[in-house]
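Practice problem: predict the structure.
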Amino acid sequence: MELNVSRKIVKEFINVRYENILIDNIYNDFFENFSRNITFIDYKKAGSYYSLFLNKLEIDKDDKDFKHLAYKTHLHIFDELDKSKYLNNPYYKNIKLEKDTKYKNLLLTKSTYKPYQAFIYKDIDVLASENYREINHLGYFKQEFSFIDLVEKDTTWMSITPHEIETMEESLKEVNGNVLVLGLGLGYYPYIASLKDNVKTIDIVEVNKDIISIFCENILPQFSQKKKVNIINKNALNFLIENNLNKYDYIFIDLWHTVEDGLELYVKISKILNDVKIKTNYWIETSLIASIRRALITLIEENLEGFKDKDYQNASNFYDSLINELYFKLKNLKINSKEDLIKFLSNETIKKLISK
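Answer:
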């Protein structure tokens, strides 16, 4: 990679990457150590959720550097969510769980957000105009909020939370025709899709037989349009490779819980579907692309530091191997301006890179 751009401009992108990671770490600290224990008394005493947030993390509200960072990243914004918006969602209104159901290692249960417990409820926004700054969206309810949860060995496999609803909303507006869904979970996406008159059939590919069993026994019978739904017990990657996909009009992919466990699958599936001319939507794709963008900015930083081929020979995990592969793929790339750099880090360029 040949960087014919001033070091000052390049450092601006690198600094924003560091700030993105710093903000993630601050959020995670708050969620893991404080969020579930917030009370109304805490909130009332603090006067605002942001003040409460600072108090719990022992951050000085008069720290000018942190205040500047907080406003750049919207860290000071905590949205009070409208409970009725989600309770009026068709899935919440019509899919009921009367009691806990256990099937082998799986537990279908109800979990709750406590009053004033903060959580991320949308996918990130990414601001190309601000050197690809990432903006998170935090919200909370003032009352307890319950949702269906599928748990395996104390780990949530899938839950129908506001984040699930918000991050699937755009795809559910456009889905139509014969639909392929990779990943079953608790069936939120196929349920809402099945209610649309312009959705004809929904094939769901799910590798875990236990999830299929607990879903078919407890949730699928509550689908008003269950005749549209066909569940296929198969590995998703094998299904994509072995089957003619031309019968589908739309593909929705939701095979991961987080960016960390989804990145490798996202890259692999993007390669498989590179030449498939079917409208495809990946769950939390903005966050997945942002993770790859961070890897590219890491390469740019290492370029400034004089890293050579020998520094990209070994990898201890997928993220490292991705950086190594990108390094050799981009060896002959020339970036001659800030505009080139912005284009190089765009969603469109990153999608092309990983699909090849």
